[in-house]
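Hello forum,

I keep getting stuck at the same step: I have a sequence, I want structure tokens, and every attempt I make locally crashes halfway through. Rather than fight my setup again tonight, could one of you with a working pipeline run this one for me? It's a single chain of 393 residues.
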Amino acid sequence: MELSFGKGALLLLLVAAVVAMLTRRLRLPYSVGLVLAGMGLAFLPMVPKIAFTREILFDTLLPPLLFEAALSLRWDELRRQLPVVLTLASAGVALSGAVTAAGMRCLAGWTWPSALLFGALIAATDPVSVIATFREAKARGRLPLLIESESLFNDGTAAVAFGVAVTLAAGRSLSGWAVAAALASTIGGALLCGAATGVLALLLAGRTEDHLVELTVTTVAAYGSFLLAEHFHFSGVVAAIAAGLLLGNSRRFGALSERGREAMLAFWEYAAFAASSLVFLLIGMQEAGQNFAGVRKPMAVALLFVMLGRAVAVYPLCALFGRSALRVAMRHQHALFWGGLRGALALALALSLPGQTPQRAEIVTVSFGVVAFSVFVQGLTMRPLLRRTGEIP
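Reply #2:
Ran it on my machine without issues. Output:
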């Protein structure tokens, strides 16, 4: 039987706690252990099934993950890296999606609408997977800032690209001006929603020294910014990031008390841990139900061109900064390339495709296959790569 998310979450959190202890002892990536545990749970008859839907991810699990990640970003450091981050998060996503779509059309034999849909939803690196991997590895310095910031900001481009692909798949046409307007509205509206909720939270927090009230206000800001933006069809991800950046750098405004700030950081660290645990367990439970035998060729093509698209997005674009103070070291470029993990965001977009979408079943199954590759192959080899490049001891 299918269990409600609320009841099922309690069981999954217990499993996550056990997996956390085991993976630490075995020195395995926590995300890999969770996906494996989720796959194991899916085969146990006494474990009820929990539906993994776009609504659960977007309305419940994603806001705390994004908000907490943005809280830890220092604006002074991020501002210096913004040209690189925004280039990777915009042109990089577009290039990656175009390369993947071309590969699926020419070698896998998919129709252009299906190929474009897949290219758009798989192009963006997933903030959940990326942040979990780099934090587990305890990476520090410029590289984690670049790759985590890119994974947070590239949703705006991916959302517009996915919307354009859905429109084209439905047989409607779009002009270049319409695409540009959609991009500006998606990101600009999201920034306004995030800034408005963040400023409101700071104003309310400044009127009290009760750390519990301050914590409540930050909770409203995290979810409120995301849901407000999604209500107006803007990017909830960008809105939550904007609100998190404001509150995370709130010391300059003096709005939060010192105790309130400590409580906020501790609470959101736990909230992000719980949310990411549930995401990876749910991915594992869904992976176990996929039939990959019938999509071997498109799966192989997808893996090849997703990685090729990531290479095209990283190396040429980083070369643009080669003669400037923002030059990205080659070892960092290698880590950016291999650290471009895919995860829950791609699956949520795939599952949200309308039932009448051409080749929908293949798109969903291949998306799960790419995510499995990200978790098991890239996830397991990311730490050795970081160690070899000197990013971690």
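The chain has a mean pLDDT of 87. If your local run keeps crashing, start a new thread with the error log.
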